[in-house]
What does this fold into?
Amino acid sequence: QDGKDPQTTGGVTVGAQTGSGLKDSSKLQEYETVPQGVVLWDVDLSWKNASRYFLSFEGSKLGLDDQSASFQTGQKGNWKLNLSLDQNLRWLSNTAETLYNQSSPGVFNLPDGMRASLQRIWSPASTDPKAPADSNDARFWSVRDYMNGAQPVELKYIRKTGRAALDFSAIKDLIFTVSYQRETRNGTQPLAFTAGPGIDEVANPVQFTTQDSRVEVNYNKKLYFVNGVFAYNVFTNDVPYTTVDNPVRLNNTDNFWTATTVNNTSANATARLWNAPDNKATSFDFSTGVKLPSHHKLTFTASTTRMTMDRTLIPQATNPNLGLTTTGFTLTPEYPAINAKLGQTLYMINFSGDPSTRFGYSVFYRSFDITNDKPAYIFHSTVNSDGGASYSAAGITSTEDMGGYKTGQFKAEGHVTLVPGVKVGVNAGQLKSTFEDRMYMDVKDNTVGVTLDANLRWAMFHGGYTNLSRQPGAIDPDEPAEGTTGGPLDIHADMKDVAKQDGKIYNAALTLTPLDKTALTFSVQGVNSDFPDVSIGLRKSTMKNVGLDFVYAFTDKFSVNAAYVYETYHMDTNLWYGANGTIANPVATNTIDQYFNKTDDKVDTYKVGFRWDLLPGRADLSTDYDYSKGRSDSAFTINPGGQLGGDMYYPTSTTTVNFPAGGPYLNYPQVFNATTIWKTRFNYHLDKNLTLSLMYWRQVFDHADWAYDTLGLYMLPGSALYATTPGAVANIYPQLDPSANRALFLNAGVPNYNANIFRASISYRF
Amino acid sequence: HAGQAQAAPQAGIACVDCHTDTVNAFRGTPHADSAAGCEGCHGDSKAHIAAGGGKGTMKNFKSLSASEASAACLTCHDKGGQKHWTSSVHDSRNVSCITCHNPHPKGKAPKALLAKPQFELCTTCHLQKKAALMRSSHMPMREGKMACTSCHNPHGTPYPKQLLQVSVNQNCYSCHAEKRGPFLWEHAPVRENCLNCHDAHGTVNDYLLKVKQPMLCIQCHNGFAGGGMGNAHSVRDRYAANQSCMNCHPTIHGSTHPRGNTFKR
It folds into this structure.
């Protein structure tokens, strides 16, 4: 349309899609809708005239859950208005079902009759005359019956993001951008919780709204620029609390906690879970830079953000559970509301330049600081989990410095071009982190690295190596000592484990192009980290991958490609994970690597495809086959014996080691998940405006997960692992019956699928 | 730029006789609106025309070093998202503008004149990211709902890993504002860096976790005082199933419950 005024272009793609296996699993449509039937895939229209005014509209999958649309108009160089809508879905499970009714968002109730029957399952079933009799399968049969009465529930939410932005230039070189974005997320997501000994799970409502308003100013001149952004962001959650009807009474005596059976079906206790709180953030970012002679440049950036959260506390008297035991409780909260504040500040100064064609450098310092400005709170009286009453005379203290830290980073880098196309760089730096509530007051990461980059006619290489040495500073005298409450072995463990580290970070990619028609790339990347100061926790982690990518063009019309990447992720932990029921009083001991667990993740990723111009400019055929199989395997090696002392903390220092015979003691069954995506496309250009497209798409998901699929052995009568003795510790196992467990756990599985999809579409462009 | 639209169809008029395909491709790009035309990037054409063409008489980007090639682009594109290009990771590692952008594309000019679709382009070098995004737990990039530039600016930023925001967490909060808090009870590793537990590009574990639960949690919380992870938190029992540690500690990103110090509420 050269020379035409105005110019109008556009297009539309419509088609039909069908296939099998599309609805078998949420995993296929986790992030995208795969519709069946007639679909308007894409539509676009643009218009512009000689006065530089323009209009454009683009839409994709309109009317579907993952639709998107945008509209732009303006005058080029002067102003632009952009309106957009973008939707993302997240489908978590298509198998979920629940025993609960939801009377209003976040209020889950269980019918009394169902509740009473469920209790009988766990109140030793063999002696309860009211329980449905099946002495051969004392633990699960009733729950399975209830599964039949459970209601399907959707575990899925949709994110809708609408945005309006206006760019305009007030005066030459000064551009303002004003934008407003509103994002909603609506649906459900699984939420597991405990309110006493049992575990339950509900399809928790997601009713989130995030609003973002911002103003940006850019002033650009030849030798300097100034940029400022002010943003105000508000997050609101329409379901601040979730209340669940008496989950405690779904459980009988707990074999570990030795709680008594709760048979009272008339009590009106609830569990209250506090969902994500409303919050706000206000931020201001500023950047400026100036170009100096001889290609030197100085830039400065500063950013400050203020994050706040205010939440009104619920009067404890509203918890009916307190009616049972009000003695010792102060029913009026000491604080009607809590308020948390975080201040975040960043500034960075960067001096860089390329004073000659052979030499370049950069030097920067960056400071990042998060200060926790929340006041300290002491809660002398509270409600334990909002499910049962409790009282803490000493109080529970939330200190004012929790979560605060700051970092200062300095780094210098220089590079020299040895010969045309070959550049060598060296760098060195230090990152110092200072914590408000860690065992060490500060930790320093010292790094030294080299890089090599080459762009030659027949080869390209990018490689780098960095040595990391992390050293802890002085011990914070305000922090609890190791082994005391709040110390490193407490659940609030200070991170002594990662305070000292030796790391090696490397990467390299070599692409060879000996011929115009072929390219071969080798790549390797890895991180090896040792934590020599470990007393608990992480001792070593190793990540590495190697890859190969190959492209070969037989002719101008036909080329093939293939790739393979192998990745491993390994972690060692210098302690153990106790076996249930094997020891009465677990003891953490040793040291000389006799007790450790390890995690091994491995992934193989394959790719192969071809491109074929059957009739140049008229018809083309292509295919892409991708396969990835990841697996995760964890093992726990526990040898009996061991030595006292070492670098391992001894909780009691008196108990001897009493592990049974050596390991590997426990292995998690291997978890794997494999994804196959195979798409073959054929395009035929009927004329310059019309294109016919066909696609065959096969996608397969195959996985196994011990958390769902391999626990059956422990539930099956006749299995050596099946526990049959009521009251024994091992009887915790049966609660994991795949049926029973999933009823209470929403049965939120992700089924395998094997989808075969056929699509035909026609595009018209003008 | 007023009035340049009229000049656009004339762009490359002296060059089209010899470089027909290249100039026609150029005319479909935003650069065609520039009055400078081909000479805007390739320099004065008089010597080239006088010599009847040939190498060495005009600027040929294939023979330039990475920094020289980028310098030509930065003549105009040194503002906005490109203002931090100089000394950025890509700049200092021999990557130039034309490594990723093609000013003379065949067919309809793609957005930002990218030489390939963005995901394909970035993973040409970052192969391991391509593999990570093929994993079962991944960002919705292969579905086209996100792009590398949703989080990174390849032209450089003052922030780590060329992120758009000042920190990893701030980047994540731009979509996951419910995780921002602040909370009454902060979980320090969460506040410090989301990547302590998650790998944003893709993993073999649910929720982009680097390591499957409960192994993830016991990298730090292992054998804590008072009996530790023994009977109360045993392997293969109900505490290890499904969401594992988060069965009982669901508010692991932070809690505002007065009794939320153990992240159970």
Chain A is about 5% helix and 55% strand. Chain A has a mean pLDDT of 79.
